[in-house]
Amino acid sequence: MTVYITCLLTSCFPSLDTRRLKEVFLKLGIKEMDLNDGKQNGSQSYYIIAKYNEDFLIFFSEFLMPGLVDTHIHACQYPNAGLGYDRPLLGWLEEYTFPLEAKYSDLKFAKKVYDSVVRKTLDCGTTTACYFSTIHTNGSMVLVESIIEQGQRALVGKVNMNTNHPDYYGETTESSLKETQNFIDLLLNKKNDLVKPVITPRFAITCDMKLMKELASLAKKYDIHIQTHISENIKEISFVKELFPDQESYGSVYDSAGLLTNKTILAHGVHLSDEEIKLLADRKSAISHCPLSNSHLKSGICNVRKLLQNGVKVGLGTDISGGCSPSIIQVMQGALASSVHLCFCCDEESKELAYEGEYPLALDYQEVFYLATLGGAEALAMEDKIGNFKVGKDFDALLVSMKDSSSPVDIHMPYETKELIQKFMYLGDDRNIKKVFVSGRLVKSL
Ligand code: GUN
Ligand code: ZN
User: Fold this and answer.
1) Is the CATH number of domain 68-379 3.20.20.140?
2) Residues 6+ apart with CB under 8 A from 224
3) Hey, what CATH class is 2-66+389-445 in?
4) Which of the listed residues 76, 93, 104, 289 should we mutate to test ligand 1's pocket, taking the one with most ligand atoms within 8 A of CB?
5) Over the stretch 92-130, which tens digit does the pLDDT of each residue have?
6) Residue whose CA lies nearest to ligand 1 atom number 7
7) 201 lines ligand 1 (CB under 6 A)
8) Every domain range in the chain assigned CATH 3.20.20.140
């Protein structure tokens, strides 16, 4: 595979000279190489073209890896991270989440929270995030401003909800559509290549069929993404059945509305039927796997292996504040752990296998690394731009260091690169992420 990176590598690795880099590559078995310190647009850059792995470039105990992709995060819920896990989904929304989201009519409050969630996620290595804001158009634009100022790549959705909402937090069908149109216009007028709108019906409980159909038309008209939630919690699914008695399943509610496209990201998908999984695969819609949220809100365990085997695109999501952590590193740890737990409780066959020492449902670190990077990019239909270091993609990257004494990872001996990567995934945190680049721009530097 070919790696082609154009970036200011010298700013990452000031001590590197070209000769040394060539030696390192040769040691790593990289045979074909064209390395020079040529200039591009007047800036000092190294071009590296190497037949190697698209996922990593390794320099001693530091490595460059593709940026992390968070395919599902409620920016507005950041103040509640770590709180309110004594209620399952529907009670949690009523008691903790809607009251918080209602506060975002206050733009000063919005600015404070949104600045900090964008800063925090960048520090944790999230170069691309797919955000929910709230129903407020102006508040959603405050989030857009924070993202643009700090240089993250993002999709941003103004939430839609016209039914089954509290009196103090909701919209009519007309205002929901008018404000969504307004939000799309405002955001597209920014003409920012990195930040785009995403149509965001909250879920089938809070949006009626008319609204969902109109939103699907808007998505089609502008050729933009769609995000929502699906089959997260058993009581939620029963309520959707009551609301849409003529529909075969939760998935077919969205399909009838025209909301399942190849640019649709559905969070959770914990309790999908085989038919629904096939439907999502046929429509090329993706699931955002949110293992921390699935645990904290006691929703269930998602069988990611089954989704992947059936051709459904999967990325990882923090789902702040259903999930407690803004860091995809922690979500990777959750994805690894929950996939092992599933082996012991999924069905009789899996249980028997697990007791015999076989764990076919468990994800390994390479698979979870993929979900956090290229898998996320595919889930967001952005794999032509991000996800790995393939020729022609944008440079969204993390410089990870394992040699810093303040890091949570102690290095006692020379580890192989794949061991460093495992250590980073299982016990690393944002202290190990020394630099973050989005589209070649340095957006974090320790
Ligand atoms: N379903 C509808 N809204 C939400 C939300 O804000 N968080 C989660 N986890 N699920 C939802
Ligand atoms: Zn969510």
Assistant:
1) yes
2) 184, 196, 197, 198, 199, 218, 263
3) mainly beta
4) 93
5) 999 999 999 999 999 999 999 999 999 999 999 999 999
6) 322
7) no
8) 68-379
